[in-house]
Each structure stands twice: as structure tokens, then as C-alpha cells.
Amino acid sequence: MAQDRMEESSATVKALYGTENPCSIKGAPELGEIMQKFIYSDVNNQVKMPLAQKELLTLVVLTANNTPEDIGIHVKGALNAGATPEEIRETLYQCTPYVGFARSKAALIERMESRHGIHTVEAAHALGLGSRDYDLVKIG
């Protein structure tokens, strides 16, 4: 049973994040495995919504919890699960009135940086959703 949970969760993690693992914890691999089995096997089997929606919801929670360092890998997961860059952006915009500008801004900056932001700007411009007249700057 335990091995089945690990195999199942590993397959989901690989499908969403490739070789990266959001549950990987340097110096505490046991805790990482516990997290992985719980999130990507137990919870994943109980919550009956598409993976893309799960990842978008995860982005909302990470934004609300002010953990932008975890945004990038879940942006990757959302994209791999079928969410569009526009859906990701709009999801993070929707957080703003509820969690504040600072948290939403931090999440949006991480989203841009983690996915090599200029590609997102170019895609938005091609869709008529923005302009290429932005400068990506490193803050902090």
C-alpha cells in the first residue's frame, strides 16, 4: 500500500513538474516523502477536479500565504496540466482584493521570473492582451 502511494504520487509529480519536486526538502527527505504521498496521492484522489484547477487553486493559496518562492514550480505544474498563461495571470490578479497588492505583486513577479517572463509578455502581446513595452527588473 505504502509503495503504491509513493509510485502513484511520483507519477503525478513527474507529470506536473518533470524532474522538479515541490515536496523535496533538503536535509529532510522523509518529510518530503510524507508530503508527497499525502498531497499527490491521498488528497489528489479525494479531490475530483482537473489537475489544472488544482494547480490554479494552489497558486491562490501560495499567494495568500505569501510564499512566492513556491509559485514558480506550481506555475510550471499548472501549464503542464493544461492551464493557459492567461488563466494563471488572471488567477493571481483575482487574489489582489483579498490578499493585498504586495502579496499579489510578489506572486506575479515570481510567475514572470520563473517562466522567463519575457515569453509571457510576448504571448500576451500576440493575443492583444498587453504590450512589449515592459522592462523586467530584478527587485531586491
Describe what is shown at a glance.
The chain has 140 residues and is an all-alpha fold. Helices cover 69% and strands 0% of the residues.
Distance between the termini: 46 Å
In N-to-C order, the SSE pattern is HHHHHHH
Q: Based on DSSP secondary structure assignment, what is the total number of beta strands?
A: 0
Return the average pLDDT rounded to an integer. 86
Instruction: Report the sheet-strand fraction.
Output: under 5%
Distinctive features:
single chain; 140 residues; mainly alpha; 7 helices; 0% strand
How are the elements arranged and paired?
Blueprint: H1 2-17, H2 29-46, H3 51-64, H4 71-80, H5 85-99, H6 101-114, H7 118-126
Helix pairs in contact: 1-2, 3-4, 3-5, 3-6, 4-6, 5-6
In words, what does this structure look like?
With 140 residues, the protein is mostly helical. The chain has helices at residues 2-17, 29-46, 51-64, 71-80, 85-99, 101-114, 118-126. Helix 1 packs across helix 2 (29-46).
